[in-house]
């Protein structure tokens, strides 16, 4: 049984088809400058699906073309964000694989660095800690963090930069104290930071 939403959807469908025919090629070519052709097709499908699900956006947003380009830009950013997340997950998975977790030295270093990072992050000033975790844990962009916290983009950059310097300093001291090997420390730390 079709409800009022499906009736509304049917009414907006012809208009949607016109919009699709008018803009898909332009959007596809724009997307192909940033991602591969198959990924561009997937992204465009998401853009037009979201438009089909919420046709009221067209009336509220003004220019349909501007709305579609804005939506495309957002979907491409989401695409790269998901790619980075997947890459980070795969790197982290490599470190939690049995060959790393069964070696006692690697396990010990992993645990020590995990404690070190948690200690360093928890000792950061509240604002710095919040910004850093929003960036690394929630994977928000600097603009999103600035908007969320009502602070300037430059402040977000400064806070993240200061947080990374603190962590580097702590890792450098750990490396000196334990003679752990810089490459190993960096690799384990990179894997741990993806969880934050």
From TrEMBL:
The keyword Transcription applies. The lineage of its organism: Bacteria, Pseudomonadati, Bacteroidota, Chitinophagia, Chitinophagales. GO terms for biological process: DNA-templated transcription initiation. Residues 116-167 form the RNA polymerase sigma factor 70 region 4 type domain. NCBIfam families: sigma70-ECF. Gene3D superfamilies: 1.10.1740.10, Winged helix-like DNA-binding domain superfamily/Winged helix DNA-binding domain (1.10.10.10). It holds the Pfam family Sigma70_r2. InterPro entries: RNA_pol_sigma-70-like, RNA_pol_sigma-70_dom, RNA_pol_sigma70_r2, RNA_pol_sigma70_r4_t2, RNA_pol_sigma_r2, RNA_pol_sigma_r3/r4-like, WH-like_DNA-bd_sf. Transmembrane segments: none annotated. This is Sigma-70 family RNA polymerase sigma factor. One of its GO terms (molecular function) is sigma factor activity. It comes from the Bacteria. The keyword Transcription applies. Belongs to the sigma-70 factor family. ECF subfamily. Keywords: Sigma factor, Transcription, Transcription regulation. Residues 20-82 form the RNA polymerase sigma-70 region domain.
